[in-house]
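notes to self, project folder thing:

trying the whole complex as one job this time. last attempt i did each chain seperately and stitching them together was a nightmare. two parts in total, labels are on each line so i dont mix them up again. if this works i'll redo the older ones the same way
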Amino acid sequence: MGTSVFYLVAFLSIFFSLMVIFAKNPVHSVLYLIVTFFTFTVHYILLNAQFLAVVNFIVYMGAIMVLFLFVLMLLNLNKENEPLKSGLLKVVGVVAGCCLVVTLIGSLKATAVSDPLVLQNPNLGLVKNLGKELFGPFMLPFELSSILLLTAMVGAVLLTKKEKV
Amino acid sequence: MDITFVIEKFILVAIIFGISLVIAMYSTYAERKVAAFLQDRLGPDRAGPFGILQPLADGLKMFMKEEIIPTHSSKWLFMVGPGLAMLTACIGTAVIPWGSPITIGGKIIPLQVTDINVGVLYIFGVVSLSVYGVMIGGWASNNKYSLLSAIRAASQNISYEVAMGLSIIALLLVTNTMSLKEIVEMQHGWHWNVLYQPLGFLLFIICAFAETNRAPFDLPECETELIGGYHTEYSSMKLGFYLFAEYINMFVSSAVMATLYFGGYNYPGMDWVLQITGPTIAPLIGTAVLFLKIFTFIFFFMWVRWTIPRFRYDQLMHLGWKVLIPLAIANVIITGIVIAIVEKF
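result (full assembly):
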């Protein structure tokens, strides 16, 4: 049962991420991306990581994608007023894409089949255990990353100020 | 997973869904009656005694109206919008404990669809999704007023979510759990969280007004500036869904506030009533008490709507970012310090 659900959700994840790329309209792309994130949430639940699942749900689906949609709606990109891309740009795009594919295939061939990682504690993803881990052994990295985020936030606020501070 | 479990949950879900719809339906009637009461009018009084059939008449009217889909709209999303608004409004009820476990024929049935250990965050997640119905509908209409309204809804929702999340953090510091069932059980015997978190509750209720798009935060449907707001292009039952979703949202957020801050189904003298009436009737009385609290909140929502005028957009942003968020952060810090001191001594 678990594996078949996983394969179904994995298929949906890949399908919707492909739809993100193939959709012509940028707003449709973002909507497919939201569905993709939703399938990720289901993956986390299957892995018994409830906290991560619900945070992914709140932060990515509920906040970041709303802002994405917000910006795209504000830009109002329609097919009618989209500037035509020059031929040179298309050639550059194709070449860059092929380079990426070659690199990906090369790196995939280089990796061996990994050992399935056995989780020491399958309940690690529950809130209580995760909190104890984060504020115990991983205290310093956790605090450092939060300072990093704070710095980025202050920087973003500073950039929006027009006058000299 | 045995079959009785599935049937039991299915019946519970059906009942809760039905109750939410009926309450939302009669909230529209109550809103008119409350408005009439506050403005010294009579309100609807023609359909049935005291106009009690008015919601049915309104619903019939909505269904009978002509369905118009604008030619330059994106049709699929235009239809998804109202559906999404209804969906996100309804799924929040899944984690709310509607009563203490009830005993029917020797079998104990919990009056909660599911008790997940991140219940509070689930509610928060559902709230953060609720803006998509408005945004998608507003954008798909291909009307600049609808689009402006969708953008307003998005920025308002994001802004007030921050303060709401911070007020929930202070609450979680007090409760030490995210399971709504445990939060309600902890409040047994006058340990209502509102007594420990008065500021947190004030912030939460303001944000709840903003998240449900109720006045004075109903800027996305500000008709003086935006015609009808995000549902300008909508007609028939699609418009009905949008209006209906607002009332369901109001019901769910009232239920959440009653559960988180006002003791849920707890009431004074509960144990005494349990001894007298037995384990079948007593939980039902608890449920009735919970609904009484919910109706009080719904009345409060309406009372505010007909009392306070709508904010200006800059006032809205000022209140959200410069007043509520600093207050919420201060609340978290003070709560943390107090708890540390109490635990020390």
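what i see at first glance: The beta strands of chain B are 102-104, 107-109.
need to look closer tmrw
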